[in-house]
Fold each of these.
Amino acid sequence: MHDIEKKSKSTQCVHGSLIPDGSGAVVTPIYQTSTFSFKDVDHGAGLFAGKGEGYIYTRIGNPTIRSLEKAVALLEDGYDGVGCGSGMAALHLAFASILKAGDHAICSESVYGPVVGLFTQQFGNWNVDVSFVDTTDVEKVRAALRPETTLIHIETPANPTMAVTDLAVVAELAHSHGAKMTVDNTFMSPILQRPFEHGADMVIHSMTKFINGHADVVAGMVVVKDEEDYKHVRKMSNAYGGTIDPFNSFLVARGIKTLAIRVEKQNVSGMKVAEFLESHPKVAKVMYPGLKSHPQYETHKKQASGPGGLISFELKGGLDAGKVLLNSVELCVLAVSLGGVETLIQQPAAMTHASMDPALRKQAGITDGLVRISVGIEELDDIIADLSQGFDKIG
Ligand SMILES: *Cc1c(COP(=O)(O)O)cnc(C)c1O
């Protein structure tokens, strides 16, 4: 076998998910089975003791699921991955494997909406306290540290404000304090940003987004940097049971084959759409890490190889103008989610971040008039023409 670890990311996308089974299959098939037979009692007992080759039961491991876990871990340069039924299941698994009662966590204040509820309600009930902090400012992170802080969770660029956090600086702070840093890398995918290079301990993906890329699967992944942590996360996953299934694993592994070319196109189109928006007279402000006007433009350039396909912007006409635009677009799809082949457009304050406390929304800069676009792989001119005619409808 070629040494796949040493190949480029686009080659790893194509070849990283094959687990040869002796049949000559070019892709790992769907092992649609809940359980696996043992050769004899000693073989079965050995597998339960963590020895020998083979599978036990699909919640614990399955070749199709393993092929996907290996593929994503390879792309992130991590030790190994644990597939989950959704991105939220992956975030829950990562946090639950780090936090215990009495601990304190620090989380980026601009963050995927339901993460706020997960921390404040779920973990709050278990006596874990959380501080939502502007992690773009390392001094604010330092000031929020407590003796019992064991986790710092970062989204960069953050959903939906596109605020960028310096991963290496926060990782150093976390580690000098004995805390772990988890990074939600959903927005960038491993094609553009690999948080382990900057000190992350765990990388989480909603594979529902760029990794699968076709808006037909909900799935998540926790990729872990070292073996010991991985074994712990795996054990927790076996107990929680929020695993991905073989069929969805197959679909995501199929999506990954085109991840690099999709992201490359979305990266180029994203930049052009951001420039179009920034020059449009009806737009007040564009938040996109590829624009020099982005406050952390240099930080993003240092830790990621491109700005990606997500853009947030504010219209001069605020919420009402946004409504007109969203109701007028014809090609862009009015839907939440992101990272798929189709361009999606939505209003975070009314949709993805509606469940967030209004005070925290305000603190994080998620204004009522904010519009978020996930640029797809359609012809760029068609996307811009559609937005243009939508802008024309705003009075
Ligand atoms: C969508 C998303 C999630 C949650 O993923 P699901 O697959 O919907 O559970 C988490 N983080 C980010 C940044 C996301 O965009």
Note: The chain has a mean pLDDT of 96.
Amino acid sequence: MAASSAHHSTSTSMVRLSLFLLVSIASSSFSPATAQSPPSSCASHTFSSNQLFASCAALPRLGTTLHYNYTAAANTVSVAFRAPSKGAGWVAWGLNPNGTGMVSTQAVVAFRHSNGSLVAYPTLLDSYAPSMAPADAAELGFPVSNVAAEYVKNGKEMVVYATVALPGKGSKFNHVWQQGSSVTNDVPAAHPTTGDNILSTGTIDFSK
Ligand SMILES: *[C@@H]1O[C@H](CO)[C@@H](O)[C@H](O)[C@H]1NC(C)=O
Ligand SMILES: *[C@@H]1O[C@H](CO)[C@@H](O)[C@H](O)[C@H]1NC(C)=O
Ligand SMILES: *[C@@H]1O[C@H](CO)[C@@H](O)[C@H](O)[C@H]1NC(C)=O
């Protein structure tokens, strides 16, 4: 993402992720014949550097949207997860290859570091009290690259980007998403354990 605005010059992607230079998807599986108009609540969104995503879904909880480009031939998806930013909070999105809830999800998380940078990295949700520490390439169950984050809408929303090598065949996956309102010592603190914050899970079909 080019530094096209002041907001966005703080975008950070963890260098270690450049191990997976994978994908910048040159050709895409987007087929005009099956194109549908995405829901208006997410279709109107534009990203920095005029990045375009072929599909989007308004997620049913937390006022969030997921924008994505799915490449079946490569079994990858590039996503932009957009969520309201709550004060000095954090946002996260991930896929759970082994279940439907939080535990065993591999996520990408973004928040404002105390040094002023917006940081984003993959992390493993291996329990209901995960460390939220960055996971290095060797720890990842499936490769994640191009992780970055930015504020949009004058800081009212945060976006986290990632390219994911999908952990399984087909286009349907269990995903979870989350938003928390505080970061302590540069570690995202626990999210509320009531209401929408524990209902923010679902199944997504990236071919749709
Ligand atoms: C997504 O796919 C579209 C259509 O093929 C392409 O123009 C766009 O650059 C892709 N965006 C990203 C972020 O990969
Ligand atoms: C998912 O299950 C597989 C097979 O049992 C295991 O190897 C893998 O570590 C699990 N992944 C996570 C993130 O728990
Ligand atoms: C802030 O810390 C993060 C995480 O260690 C690092 O990636 C980033 O480069 C730092 N930013 C500045 C401005 O020092």
Note: The chain has one helix and twelve strands.
Amino acid sequence: MLLSLLITSSILGIGFAAPNPAAHVVHEKRGTAANLLRRRVEPDALIPVRVGLKQSNLDSGYERLMEVSHPSSPNYGKHLSAEEVHSIFAPAEDAVNIVKDWLIQSGIDVESILDYENKGWLAVDMPAHQAERLLHTEYYESDHTDGRVRIGCDGYSLPAHVSQHVDFIKPGVKLSPPLRKRTVERRDAFHGRHGIPHMKPPHWPGWTLPPAAHGLPPDLQNCGVNITPVCLQALYDLPKPNLKVPGNSMGVFEDFDAFSQVDIDLFFAKFAPWVPQGTTPAVLSVDGGTAPVAVADARNGGESDIDIELAYALIYPQTVTVYQADDLPNSSGETGKNGFLNTFLDAIDGSYCDYTAFGITGDSPSIDAVYPDSLPGGFKGKLECGVYKLTPVVSISYGEAEDDLPKPYVERQCNEIMKLGLQGHSILVASGDYGVASFPGSDNNEFGCLSSATQNGTIYNPDYPSGCPYITAVGATRLYPDQTVKDAESAMQVNLTAFNIETGSGGTSPPLDFFASGGGFSNYFTPPAYQAAAVKGYLETHNDLPFYIANADASNVGANGGVYNRGGRGYPDVAANGAFLTTFNNATLLTFFGTSLASPIFGSVLTLINEELALVGKGPVGFVNPVLYEHPYVLNDITNGSNPNCGSEGFKASKGWDPITGLGTPNYPKMLELFKSL
Ligand SMILES: *[C@@H]1O[C@H](CO)[C@@H](O)[C@H](O)[C@H]1NC(C)=O
Ligand SMILES: *[C@@H]1O[C@H](CO)[C@@H](O)[C@H](O)[C@H]1NC(C)=O
Ligand SMILES: *[C@@H]1O[C@H](CO)[C@@H](O)[C@H](O)[C@H]1NC(C)=O
Ligand SMILES: *[C@@H]1O[C@H](CO)[C@@H](O)[C@H](O)[C@H]1NC(C)=O
Ligand SMILES: CC(=O)N[C@H]1CO[C@H](CO)[C@@H](O)[C@@H]1O
């Protein structure tokens, strides 16, 4: 008989029949019942029983991260090794023994009990009748449309002293994570990417030099319409880079999109001549990802080009490392998976590959790419686990609507980001480009907004992973054409439809009227303590928008006509320029907008600080949010602009933290001084 561990909602039951003696407690039970054809599993059929052990200390992750990241902690900066982090969260040794003892006392041969490498699981194959007796349940099987047989039960019981150490047992009642969307949206080349190239000559007709620009050096006169590395250095008071400390390469995550050496060389020659021709990042291929590509290749969409160009321009002679994730069938969206980041996290932390948290173990096959990939051109190797070291700083200019991923999936992944923070890594993400909405078209809405029974496309659609409280979400800012680097920046918002019309270069993919710094409030996470006061301060003075308070499973989004979750984690945390970057893509001069620019810029700033810290014998800055919320004066507060969309005015930038530009843009000398003093 062919049995599969994949259990889907195709088998649902009606409460369970076996007796439940007093010594046992119900460990899991199906909530909903459905009338589907079902057969008892043959008593002698071998069932692969997997016992997922409860990880210890999951709920203490936040405190532990604050212990090493909060400036007032005596252990600030004392980051942990991967092994230390692993052992904190691994199941307690006695949990393993208690569950093993129970199995042995139930008549299972000790030799047949296998311990997974990371101690998260015990595995034992046993006949159905034995499993049913052990778990006080009945196993059913059902045929699935793909020809495979799935087995499961309606509920099962465990002795109380065992139950407390068990997360869940497979096969059991666990279904694949509930996808809230009926059909998984295809992730094409641009879906999931923050930043779209927009063509425009550097000086459009009708633009005249602002009066204040006349007194500036020539290379700073055009910054209001043409941001360059020199403009960024002036805006944020960045040093001319000259350090290269071993181990401080800056990481950028790329998926599908790949850079072209021709393009980055053209950029260096024209806008960052201190970076020698031929300078190229180290490329680490994750599960078959490849880079670079030829200049005219369809995968050279601009995202990788700009990430690498900005980072190298700001940190050279320090180097850049590209984590190029996923083989083509998957990264192109061909396999219809909308999973994000898990395969990358597997590659940099082997223990994550089969780590259990929030009821999920390992990648989610219904959501994540599966390797080996049998599709033509697919990666034929095994899923890569722990094959690379993560750089101290990594910038991710990708994301998707939080709503498109199940909450437990997002929680498990966010928890991993917490563990990387414990080890001293800074994980940065672009906060999105459509203001309070997600990508145009997502969630079946032209503008990328959410709907409810009573609201049609008027509910704000928060971004993931920006909503994870352990990541640093970076929003975008801009100068206006009549301004110079001496002026305060505003939140990045621009009507790109009008912009294209003005230059006659034609539209890209509408609607682009509401291109603006992504920001808002997560429906899955509440504000972490480090930002609670900042968020409260903002909300106290901003009462104009209707809101709701999301419940535990975020099933009431849009309740009471509300458009945002007033009880959510606010994002972004910080900001940097994300407008008018002129660069080459497919060897053509284009102008780019988006938080895709802001995240590598902020990551470069942290990398420069890490270099200076290394020189004085200090470790990397690690997870920076607690320090920055405690000392917001090291950032330039952005107080002008807003991010309207979804049929309302969005949020307004204002004094202090706001959900468009966070705490603001870098003031490098102040940041450096602060981090040196900690
Ligand atoms: C790159 O430019 C060449 C020449 O203009 C053009 O033929 C090709 O289609 C372009 N590639 C892409 C992906 O747009
Ligand atoms: C929601 O609004 C769109 C236009 O923005 C319209 O096409 C659609 O039919 C509306 N849906 C419902 C259920 O009213
Ligand atoms: C954006 O610009 C276009 C073209 O000028 C215009 O039709 C549209 O109304 C503008 N959108 C907004 C929201 O102002
Ligand atoms: C403030 O932002 C608005 C757009 O919201 C823009 O038109 C204006 O020029 C900005 N003012 C300053 C001083 O930056
Ligand atoms: C966009 C892209 O490169 N898609 C490729 C995905 O993989 C299939 C088969 O492996 C190719 O035919 C597609 O061209």
Note: The first strand starts at residue 24 and ends at 29.
